[in-house]
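Researcher: Next entry in the queue.
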Amino acid sequence: MEIRWSKDYEMGIEGFDRDHKQLFAIAGKLLDKVRDPSDIKDPNLRLFVLREGIRYLWGYFDDHALREEAYMREIGYADYGLHKRLHDEFKENTLGRYQRLLETGACSQEEVMDFVGRGIGWLVEHISTADLAIVGRGTIGKPRITKINSQVVEQEFNTIFASALNVNVGARLIDPNYAGTPFGSAICQELIYQRGDRKVSVLAGLENSLLAAAAEAVYGPELQGMEALIMATLEIFSANFWRTVGSRFIEGDAEMVFKENHFLTQSQIQERYAKHMPKLSVLFDSNRGKFFVATETDIAAQAESFDLSVGA
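Model: Structure for this entry, 312 residues:
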């Protein structure tokens, strides 16, 4: 199990590519520390891993972010404000969160695994969708889609999966009015964002086979015993992934700030749907497994044309 740098992440700007490789190297060293959960049974060792991880990541990331932000201002990058918010969010929601935990003087094995997994999930998603957008290759910042049908939606999902994970999922819309019915063994989430003075809730779920493919794309095939790390990676990766998806269709969704995540069972999802059917709820099949996403946001109201009939 390892986190591997790929040429697919290269921006073609030497200084930033060097920075990103170094961030991958730091993440790899942290991963080595938690590879065997028995190695972090000692509470003092856990604190050491957390302290050193925060110190290296905060120092190196902060310097890198400042230089990247200066470069975006220099070239007049249109999505500078959004990109800077993503940097600030990572420092507050991830690094800041664990800095506050460190100040308590104690942390659990699960919290250390969570710290490493969230950091890696954010790094991989951010480079592939936001940083590459600076040089015209990422997803964030592309013109919003206003003529929406099933083929367009399928294409967008496949593009974003390929960009973020270098995985060809072959997504196919199979139910444009998904009602929460279980579709196999799956991991489901409720992701809470803040957009201005409004809270936005997104329900999403990945079949385990699709989750395994995503985890293998990040960490390689040796995943046994690392479930806590994978779930932490999924949490932050999903938070940014679904926001990126939303930004392609809904004006202002890229400006949402991620606040919290709750993992849900499929029976809990069914209970939620029994009480209230979201305005948008779609189920996909793919060559890696099924997945769904649902939200209260009314995409149809913002689109010039909207038809999610299967095959439209």
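Model: Residues 147-307 form a domain with the Chemotaxis protein chec fold (CATH 3.40.1550.10).
Researcher: Noted, moving on.
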